[in-house]
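USER: My hope is that you can spare some time for a protein that puzzles me. I am handing you a single protein, as its sequence and its fold in token form. Walk me, if you will, through where the backbone shape changes along the chain. The protein I mean follows directly.
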Amino acid sequence: SGFDYLGWSVDIAGDVIAAGATWADEPTLESGGVYIFRLGATWEQETVLAPADLPDDANFGHAVDLDGERLIVGAPFIDGSVNAQGVVYIFADDGQWTQEARLTPGDLDVNFVGADVAIDGDWAVIGAPRDNTDGVSAGSVFVYHRNAANEWTYFSRLARATNESYCYFGNNVCIEGNTILVGAEYSSQFGANTGAVFVYELEGNAWSQMQVLSPNDKTAWSHFGGSVSIRNGIAAIGAYGHPNSTGAAYIFERDKAGQFTQTNQLLSTDGAQHHRFGNDVAVGDGYVTVGAPYSQDEQGSAYVYDISGEPLRSTTPRTFNARNNAQAGTVHSGISFEYFGNFDGHDYFVTTEELEYYDAHEMANVLGMVLNQPASLAIINSYDESAFVQEITTERLWIGLSDLATESVFEWDNGEAFDWSDWGGNEPNKNGGTEDVVVMNWSFSNGKYLGWNDWKEQHRYSLALIELEGEACTGDTDFDDDIDGDDLAIIIATWGDADGVGDVNQDGAIDITDLLWLLEFWGACP
């Protein structure tokens, strides 16, 4: 049916494909499902997997991984003792697919368990990038082991040796044999949002951190570790933000001492900005495949490189374009932005659609990458700034304030001092400890501003108000740091198209709105 998002996650093993449909109504409203296809004379649907205990909005199928006759599936939005704690399921194929295990991390302060999953033999690896145990969204990874009685039991928790909030450790995981790779694409260990990949090895009865990988040409906002894959000892790692979201993928191989070292860097042939080459990577037998979802006027492409002995040799890639271009012109998941205004030298943008808090947080990161500027949910720390927002809109807005790190201690996302507040009447009320993030709130009935309200992360009734650290260069369609007649010519030449570089405001149409944006920012980039 519509908006099931079939294909949100996919994996293939032999003659079986597993495809997640995170919003499928299987068995309840938008709880999600995983579709199993098997190759006979043709690929045919075999079954749909959906545990009977799935609640609404479980996001079952957000991540999948196949290994022989077993399948692991993440459902990160299932509530546990902590909101959106998440659950992971393991299924076995013994002639028919049956649920073998339901894995939860217990009562830890863990969010988004199952954001990514991996399975190899008797080991299951589960990413929880919004685990707040070591800092807000510092992240962690849970490892489970299957014993002789065919029971999956908790084995260990992997985390960074040093705490770092918002690094999303565990957003991407993979395993091969005795090696686990964990991506932390927002880590600033080597520079602002440069990213890092952590290597763990099984030594005796413990998984131990052996290395922290970073690229030789590391740059800020490259998001190295945004995707990870390993096969036959060859690791591919995506850095979709390097540079200006052009993207890159890196190949690491073990040296004689058993250490991973970089042996190659893969770049797309066109090298255009904002294509996010490296958004996903996969290593196969003899091939490395790299995804670039915003290439080909946002139809997306997959680049395939072959491996020919030592070292890895990249050939001219074969590009596979999407058959259709749904949501063309948007920057991420069908959501676009509108320019909101400028206050005190900072540009503000707002999403055109309502979304949940964590998606709003992600959209701020996406906009920052697109505009090559540090960005966050808005930090409203003065009466004048609040008044600036109130003059423009009466829509409920997510801002960058939460008590996710410490209950009842509200903090700004960027670490600024929390020395001014604008709480509405009887707020924050915490609602039994379940409301940890904050919106600017307006009355639906009369549009009256009601002040700040603490809110649940899963509510979908707010737009994201995003603040840049400086001013954007919106409308620089030819990327020459000037908004001038050349950019105007590009908009006129592509007028009426459904997508393309002339779509300045990323709303899926090149029209008068884009022209007005161009004039708004005319001149040299700030």
Remarks:
- The longest helix spans residues 357-371.
- Residues 482-524 form one domain.
- The first strand starts at residue 6 and ends at 13.
